Amino acid sequence: MKLTFLGTGTSTGVPQLGCRCKTCTSTDLKDKRLRASVLIEVNGKNIIIDCGPDFYVQMRRNDQFARLDAALVTHIHYDHVGGVDDLRPFCPPEGFPFYCTEDVNINLHKHFPYCFVQHPYPGVPHFDLRTIRPYEPFHLFDTTITPLTVMHASLPIVGYKFGESLAYITDAKTIPQRTIDSLKGIDTLVLNALRIEPHHSHLSLSEALDIVAQISPRQAYFTHISHHLGTHAEVSKTLPSGVFLAYDGLKLEL
Ligand SMILES: [Zn+2]
Ligand SMILES: [Zn+2]
Q: In CATH, what number is assigned to the domain containing residue 211?
């Protein structure tokens, strides 16, 4: 399994437009963060988790000739679904496999109504929406994927666990004990860590470190990062062993 971080930034991206702080003016490419998304290669197939507004640029940067075989979505917020229209080149006639909760499914119809009309304009994306339910594993490309509930303030959203190899969690503020328990023994944990100061709907750095300590994975990578966290180089120095900041373009072999 191969994991590529297509984007590791919070909803504004880093640099944040108009900001001249130390992080936003850093010349380190690791401080340039597009909106959060990952590409996972498993058994010769490519799965994307979330498809935000930077999707087109992310695919061009990574491998513009790559195939895409399925999408998994964590929640309906714009920074996670703003690029679904750009999935159109990947949509087969039978529809592009798109995994999401019932709630996301309903909201997709509201946000992208032209994709779901009876006689759509030729060329618009055509989805094969597949409803997932928390804690009910499903099989995709010979891999077992388990959706796990995490709380984005009061909104339940999903993280995804791939066998016992990888878990991808973004936009969590709190994580139910059932999810913590099911993550014990995971090899690689990807988790959101927004900034140093507490935030009402995202884990801060210290809260994220506390979750990592509870789960105790072999290695953990933080994503969905704000300019308020600080520069990649400075923050990386403060992290315990086995815990890293992800950055755009980072590839992991798992
Ligand atoms: Zn987000
Ligand atoms: Zn800034």
A: 3.60.15.10
